[in-house]
Amino acid sequence: MRQSHKARVFSLFILLTMITSNLNAQVHIKSQKFFEVSTHVTDGFNPKLNQSGLGFGIGFGVYNKKENSWVLGLDYLWKNIDVVTNSTQIYLVPVEQFTSSYTYIYKFYRNRNRSMYMNFRTGGIFGYESVNQNERFLTENIKINNVSRFLLGASLGAEIEVHNLIISARQRWTPTSEVKPFYIQLGIALRFNQ
């Protein structure tokens, strides 16, 4: 998927989020289940820069006592990394991460009518990283040293939840990555209670 196409999909998701953001309020009742869909930008958002990345995710969760929750998530992250060769030519190497996560969301503030929450979130990450779609050569003469591999890591973040719209900032740490260990993600999500 080209970057311009991904930017259009991201913009469409933001528009749909704004339209449906007042569908239902969150009540965070113990044992209540929920489903969420999310999208995020990685390491900044500028469609003209090659280093910007996009991602999408889904999550299934359940509230526990004190209005906290556990979430099992599936995420996709895509980003280009610039590679400069000896001839000073720049190549774009696509990096993709397919991950699952198990996250604990801790509520540290809510307003009286339960329409706004502020949460911390932390969890573990497990998945797979694909570098250059598992191709070892950029051209016939240029070989990539980084290899695709399994990922293990963690994430830490904060979020603001208004009705069913969530705005979040996360730091993703994957020390087993061959490309880079840290990613900053800014995102939005829609959460639906069952």
What do you see in this structure?
There is one protein chain. This protein has 194 residues and is mainly beta. It has one domain: Porin. It is built from 1 helix and 8 strands. It has one helix at 3-20, and strands spanning 33-42, 53-63, 69-84, 90-110, 116-131, 149-162, 165-173, 182-193. The two termini are 33 Å apart. The mean pLDDT is 82.
Share of residues in strands: over 45%
Quick one: overall form? elongated
Q: What is the string of SSEs from the N terminus onward?
A: HEEEEEEEE
> What CATH architecture label applies?
Beta Barrel
- The secondary structure category is mainly beta
How many E strands?
Answer: 8
Helix amount, in percent? under 10%
Number of domains: 1
Number of helices: 1
Write the SSE topology.
Elements: H1 3-20, E1 33-42, E2 53-63, E3 69-84, E4 90-110, E5 116-131, E6 149-162, E7 165-173, E8 182-193
Antiparallel strand pairs: 1-2, 1-8, 2-3, 3-4, 4-5, 5-6, 6-7, 7-8
In short:
With 194 residues, the chain is mainly beta.
Key structural traits:
Conjug_transposon_Tra0, 194 residues, elongated, mainly beta, 8 strands, Porin, signal, eight-stranded antiparallel beta barrel
